[in-house]
Specification:
The protein has 474 residues and is of the alpha/beta class. It has 13 helices and 18 strands. It is globular, with a radius of gyration of 23 Å.
Length: 474
């Protein structure tokens, strides 16, 4: 009986930790819009997911690239374009908010750089708004997606510390989740040093090329980079795609460098924002105290500073893409394997770019004309336990597609996440079911599998399911 209770406890813990909740992620955006066209690009994408992400605020801020000015009017311009397509978006999903509601969420930070805008007397509409949303009767975490400087949040924290009881301050701060696109002012390191328990995702330092988020726009030698090309963007996003596409600007520095700060908030069966170590569209991160003393300088003008605490930051994936075959088995592993921190993000790039293109279609096409993502469904639990040497199967047979499209399947192991690091041979991995034998283990080990279910619509869309198998010794 004790063994049965232990197994039930293990399964319950895994299900509680890893399974996705059926609730929208709340988010407030901090944006140095107009410092680079990519903020506008990211807002266009964000609003197309406003049916699935609970946008609670958009704050115009400064950064090291825009130190003395804020541009809330530029956010309003994008919301106006969204308002023109929102009626058509409703034909695809009734949960798209109206533009008037979104307009009310646009707030202003101070037109001051970094820590010069933090302290007594430095409250702003934006910093007070963050506190207001935190104080709402809502148990969900509040994500702060930082596309520029983070001093508006720093001021919120300063005010909370100085106006709330220690118990209340701890409660409010515990609800915060921060994902920053590197450090774009000097308040980021101040926050991390002064609030050591704050959940914080960042690739710190001033050399952007050494950041996970750059996987969204890095040209990767050895793969097809079409979906970040200017021609692809013009064809699938900018031209003949309605008012939102028409205001999507050309790339200047790098396409959508801010988008990774909210990609993991999109419900797709893969993303689990509370667990950055599991990987997803926004990349994969691990919690540790990094040593950036040997990193190169030159990405921004923000001075590097030593980290005094553990943060969620860069980690590596070893990734072998699957490529289509003309005859025989439809997919096969490529002959090249990639390893690095950018790989944790760009490995999903074609999937989320196609998804973006489909959403742009939603802004002007009716439901029958456009494509919609498939709905993966397993024939078994997402977590279960087997013994060494025991046979088991993984099966997504009951998956469906809202458009009636034919479905493709791809099962793969994610060894970086499971405790068992050796590769498991899945055989024909492009079928709905794979039959496996649990490896021999000397202690409890976890195997982490993902099924990617894709339709054959235009553009091709994918969704996922995770399966965690606990293997016990004999």
């Amino acid at each position: 009986m004790k063994k049965i209770a232990l197994l039930c406890s293990i399964l319950l813990t895994l299900q509680t930790s890893y399974s996705q909740k059926n609730e929208k992620n709340r988010v407030i955006i901090l944006s140095d819009i107009e410092a680079d066209p990519d903020d506008t690009q990211s807002f266009v994408r964000l609003f197309l997911y406003a049916n699935e992400i609970d946008i609670k605020g958009m704050v115009a801020t400064t950064s090291c690239w825009l130190q003395n000015k804020i541009n809330p009017k530029s956010i309003k311009k994008i919301v106006t374009a969204y308002g023109e397509v929102q009626p058509n978006l409703l034909t695809h999903d009734q949960n798209y908010p109206d533009a008037i509601s979104l307009m009310k969420l646009i707030k202003e930070g101070l037109p001051k750089y970094g820590m010069t805008g933090v302290g007594d007397g430095m409250d702003s509409e934006g910093s007070d708004w963050i506190i207001k949303i935190l104080e709402e009767e809502d148990d969900r975490p509040l994500w702060v997606s930082v596309w520029g400087g983070v001093n508006t949040l720093a001021q919120s924290l300063h005010k909370i510390k100085n106006t709330k009881t220690p118990k209340e301050a701890k409660r409010l701060i515990s609800k915060l989740r921060v994902y920053t696109i590197s450090d774009q002012d000097d308040s980021g390191i101040w926050i991390r040093n002064n609030y050591p328990d704050l959940f914080y995702i960042v690739s710190p330092g001033d050399e952007y090329s050494q950041a996970t988020w750059t996987g969204i726009n890095a040209y990767i030698k050895g793969i097809d980079n079409t979906t970040i090309s200017n021609d692809w963007i013009a064809q699938h996003i900018q031209q003949n795609h309605g008012p939102l596409g028409a205001i999507y600007p050309d790339v200047a520095w790098g396409v959508e460098g801010d988008t990774p700060a909210f990609l993991s908030l999109i419900p797709n069966g893969l993303n689990n924002a509370e667990h950055p170590e599991l990987g997803g569209w926004g990349g994969r991160y691990e919690l540790y105290k990094p040593d950036f003393s040997k990193t190169k300088e030159g990405g921004s003008i923000v001075t590097k500073a030593p980290e005094t605490r553990a943060i969620w930051t860069n980690t590596n994936d070893s990734y072998t893409p699957h490529i289509p075959k003309e005859y025989g088995r439809s997919l096969k592993p490529d002959t090249i394997t990639f390893d690095g921190y950018q790989e944790t993000l760009w490995r999903w790039r074609d999937d989320f770019q196609n998804d973006f293109a489909a959403r742009m279609d939603w802004s002007f096409m009716n439901f029958e004309e456009a494509n919609h993502p498939p709905v993966p469904k397993l024939t078994h639990p997402e977590t279960f336990t087997v013994k060494s040497g025991e046979g088991f199967f993984l099966d997504a047979l009951e998956s469906t597609d809202p458009d009636g499209d034919n479905l493709s399947f791809l099962w793969f192991q994610y060894p970086e996440i499971g405790s068992y690091k050796k590769n498991i041979d899945l055989g024909a991995d492009n079928v709905h079911i794979v039959n496996l034998t649990a490896p021999e283990v000397t202690k409890n080990e976890t195997l982490h599998f993902i099924v990617k279910v894709s339709d054959k619509g235009t553009p091709l869309l994918s969704r996922y399911k995770r399966v965690i198998v606990t293997v016990l010794p004999k």
